[in-house]
Amino acid sequence: MAIRPFVALCTAALLAAAGGAAQAAAPGTPAAAVNVFIGTGGDGHTFPGATRPFGMVQLSPDTQVRHFRQSYPWAAGYRYEDNSILGFSHTHFSGAGHSDLGDILLMPYSGDTKLEPGYPERPFSGYRSRFRHEDERAEPGYYAVRLQDHDVDVELTASERVGLHRYRYAKGAGAKVILDLRQSIYDYAGKNLWSSLRVRDNSTITGMRITRGWAPGRQVYFAMKFSRPMAGRALLNREEGVEYKGFAGPGKSAADKAQVEGKALVAALDFGTPDDGTLLVKVALSAVSEDGALANLEEMPGWDFDAERQRAGAAWNEALSAVAIDAPADMRTMVYTSLYHAMLAPSLFMDRDGQYRGPDNQVHQAKGFRYHSTYSLWDTYRALHPLLTLVQPEQRNADFVNSLVASRQHSPHGILPVWAFHGLETWCMIGYHAVPVIADAYMKGIKGINPDEALAAMVASAEYGPYGGLEHYMKLGYVPIDLEPEAASKTVEYAFDDWTIARMAEKMGKKDIAARFYKRAQNYRNVFDIKTGFVRARKSTGEFREPFNPVQSNFGSDYTEGSAWQYSWYMPHDNAGLVGMLGGDAGLQSKIDQVFDAKVDENVYAHMEDISGLIGHYAHGNEPSHHVAYLYNYAGAPWKTQARLAQIVPSQYHNKPDGLSGNDDLGQMSAWLTFTALGFYPVAPGSNEYVIGRPFVDKAVLNLPNGKRFTIRAEGLSAANAYVGSVTLNGKPLAHSFLRHEDIMAGGELTFRMQAAPNKEWGREISARPYSQTGYQQ
Length: 778
Fold this sequence. Notes:
With 778 residues, this protein is of the alpha+beta class. The chain is built from 19 helices and 37 strands. Keywords: Hydrolase, Signal.
């Protein structure tokens, strides 16, 4: 079989770029700094394929082994450790801790037709093909690879709703494509409830599939257009055991059906032998109908792959230009890649005419906003959404909020989403964390939101008794462990959500609602055991559950994806209260020191795949730990925060495929690094404050949504100079260890002067400390 070096393809593309036809990411641009392979190895669960900022299509290679028990490592479909590709599908999560999607899989090939994917360890056992990373190239909006076994070069790019493939076959080879509707990430018997394929004309196919995966009853429709007419086709339902008898011309055989329905559909498509060896495929998605998908195809009317690639790259450069980063090469790449990952979700989920499918699985019409879905809210309310208020247009942030409120209006339960994708609810994780996303946006003055509708949705979610033990929480002031699992975690997370409701209600002048929820926000105290210094689960009869082991962590136990060592510091709205319960500044500092400095046996958390990135008991690979290093500021010791951040960043983030210590969780891990690299972090979204840490870049310029610029400088930054000597804001000394949102939005300059020795006086005074619901003790 002829082997054509992939470098020839790349060289041709670069030569074309020089003439303006195929624009690769230009050196020095933000997109050129992105390494889309960060997180594709280890536990990052990211994908390297082509998509637009917050795009509806995520067109990416799938490499996973088809085995239900192994689905977790392949949550994004692709693992850098693999050496074979199953095909290229159009929907993917970025960094999720759960597997699903991988819809509408295409695989180009030449030679004999194989209808089964085969096995990685057995080359040519199916349509799967081996590949080499040397033959792989990717950047924001573009992916390319050479399929060794099929002798086909593949390039992918995308608009918001359309994925575009370009296949280059060997000279004189037949151009064939497998379309497999059986395949998806997180496969198991019976996942496909129904699917259909229909040939509209000799270059157009439409279809759909309904699945009962993570979001039961999820529907996805597609329209597929080829740049060449089909010379033959076979549309088969493999569940019926139909024997494949080869291709047939139109009307020549029963194998050449124009329409087929069933639970195991696969199509083998033949396009003859192209003179130039090239075949292009456009695939548009819709959640509404096949006709909606056909209409969405018009978003990409032509066949100019290079122009579409250029548009995708330009869209990413525009989005990433919200922040200009000056830093050493690896750090610059890690920050820009983090920003890239932070702009993949929530994803657009409506047709060009504004129609979308909601949590009632019915079709609705968006009016005045663009509907988005895929909200990993337990993760992303912490830092991702606060970051997006700084780096995305105000309308985009309003779209996110309005989508959440619209979902509540369509919800059979009348509450906001918990963890939603493709419009549907999964009920994954805990809390009602759409609430802080909405409150934070409102508190920051995001326009285009109806505050009365939003607040009503927030209160309804917080008072929906059947959800997560809320009926007991409202009655007892805590979630009882004998009546509800993960009770300790639920209590403290509900308390924070309640505080954000109070903040928004207070600003709106709704004093009765504010008072009620400020009181509920103190419920975290009901599960804090002063004697042990830990948050603990309580029974409905009032006593703490015994026996107590602070390192115990199991699914469905007292805590959610964590132990008492990770969850006992979660009252971000009232860290002064935590300081008081631990006996003062020294008590909190000592306790957080113990979190980081503990000698933890590696087997203690080995059974919990989400507890990763360990430094002592601190687990950076999972979200409950993300604010912990910043807690020293609340005890008058910002220098200790600076020291811990210098410990965390180089150990948890690297410019390589396994460069994330845990699931990126739809951008939360990445948002943490983006904020931390800039020098501050939103410990309590809704407070309009950012707790100051220390920067990891020499200079950053935020090009803000209001047209102003906010510059961060780090003078004398080096590995040796890990501590902040002093901070100035617009040339004036900044005495407090936090930054207000209005300070940033006003534009200006924040300057850090770095030094080798800690400044233990800066930020020590109570007047210098960040917001807390209750006051600091004098």
